[in-house]
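Friendly challenge for the regulars: who can give me the structure tokens for this chain first? No prize, just bragging rights.
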Amino acid sequence: MPPVEDREHRRPLPRASSWVRVGLVLLGVVLADQLTKRAVRHSIVPGEERKLLPGVQLVNTRNHGVAFGLFPGGGVVVTVLIAIALLALLIYFARHSSESLIWLPTGMLIGGALGNIADRVRAGSVTDFIKLPLGWPPFNLADTSITLGILILFLLIDHMRRVDP
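First reply, four minutes later:
Bragging rights claimed.
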């Protein structure tokens, strides 16, 4: 297997190191997500709002849909679509693991998905707790990780296409 170039440190890394980085990122996301959700469930009564920053409230709500409350009650269909998306992501990553930084959004997306799946398995719904103004639906760190992971993945894919036409 050819080595992966670590552009930050300019030294070759074994291809397996990209998989290790994915694992570390996803573990960090799942831990941060689950710890924050646990803290919210144990410190904020459902329906209560606490000011965190100007325009940002902490709440304790349950979400039966996917990220940001989309597709509530989707149940099996949503679960199957999420599984297909994660499988496609893993296949894409396996084929492109030598690309610089591709491990970051992969770990963020898988970690976010696993964080919310853990809630669904444990409680049948996801704990959301970050509430922004202007009617934005409450969300959590897993949702944030998924959203940022998608954005970073698209930016990396666009960059790869520009570099290797």
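The mean pLDDT is 86. Residues 4-163 form one domain. Your move, everyone else.
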